[in-house]
Amino acid sequence: MTKIIPPPGFDDLSVDERIDFVQSLWDRIAVTPEQVPVPEWHRRIIRERLEAYRENPAAGRPWTEARSEIERKLRER
Asked: Closest Cα partner for 27 from 36, 16, 39, 40?
């Protein structure tokens, strides 16, 4: 893997500013999602989860229910 050297001044930014910078980079990439490569391991996990769902659809639950539970747990923190 190639080591990426941050732009000049990046290390002088606060953590919040670094996060904003990285988010802005991702936002630029996300403008063209069709160009973002999907790793094979992501595809494999999706296939495995779809197969598990097909074998036992009752084991899953609606996204709205899962999201509500996640939000509730975050509020309790």
From this structure: 36
> Residues near 53 by Cβ (< 8 Å), separated by ≥ 6?
59, 60
Residue with tokens 């996204």: 63
Distance CA 22, CA 62 (A): 32
- Per-residue b or e along 14-47, where b marks 16 or more CB atoms closer than 10 Å to that residue's CB: eeeeeeeeeeeeeeeeeeeeeeeeeeeeeeeeee
pLDDT band at 68 (very low <50, low <70, confident <90, very high): very high
pTM of the complete model: 0.55
Q: Can you give the C-alpha Rg of the chain in angstroms? A: 19
- The 3-state DSSP class for residue 54 equals helix
User: C-alpha 36: how far from its chain's center?
Assistant: 13
